[in-house]
């Protein structure tokens, strides 16, 4: 879950030192009391792979995500998904990378590939980058974990 902003760099470093292959940071979703500034801190932190449910992402944050190569999550999770359209729009404007994810808390939260496609399209992902979002980006993430 979320942590104080000042701890994000150290926790990221500790996680990598302990062998973490993939690091996601809980973004500023609109449905939980995440400290303001979490998105920026995560996006500027070397070693963060995905900013999960970033909420009311700003243009500046999307630009930083593009610059740092940090993926922005489009989520299937109820509540967190309310801002998927904004995230997709800003990612399109800045060419930030997107990935569809579940924020699964249990087996019933997992989704099929057709559900992931519906989430991406419903979020406003253009058809011409659909394969990138649903296949290429997840494969790149997995390659980095090997």
Automatic annotation (TrEMBL):
Domain of life: Archaea
Gene3D superfamilies in UniProt: Metal-dependent hydrolases
GO MF annotation: an example: phosphoric ester hydrolase activity
A GO CC term assigned to this protein in UniProt: cytosol
SUPFAM superfamilies: PHP domain-like (SSF89550)
Family matches, as InterPro entries: PHP_phosphatase, Pol/histidinol_Pase-like
Protein name as it appears in the record: Polymerase/histidinol phosphatase N-terminal domain-containing protein
Organism: candidate division MSBL1 archaeon SCGC-AAA259I07
């Amino acid at each position: 879950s979320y942590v104080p902003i000042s701890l994000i760099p150290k926790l990221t470093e500790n996680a990598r030192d302990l062998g973490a292959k993939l690091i996601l940071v809980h973004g500023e979703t609109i449905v939980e009391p995440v400290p303001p500034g979490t998105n920026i801190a995560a996006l500027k932190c070397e070693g963060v792979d995905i900013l999960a449910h970033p909420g009311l992402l700003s243009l500046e944050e999307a630009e930083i995500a593009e610059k740092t190569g940090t993926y922005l999550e489009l989520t299937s999770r109820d509540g967190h998904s309310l801002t998927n359209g904004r995230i997709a729009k800003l990612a399109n404007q800045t060419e930030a990378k997107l990935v569809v994810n579940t924020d699964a808390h249990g087996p019933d939260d997992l989704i099929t590939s057709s559900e992931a496609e519906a989430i991406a399209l419903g979020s406003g992902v253009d058809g011409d980058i659909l394969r990138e979002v649903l296949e290429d980006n997840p494969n790149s993430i997995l390659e980095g974990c090997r």
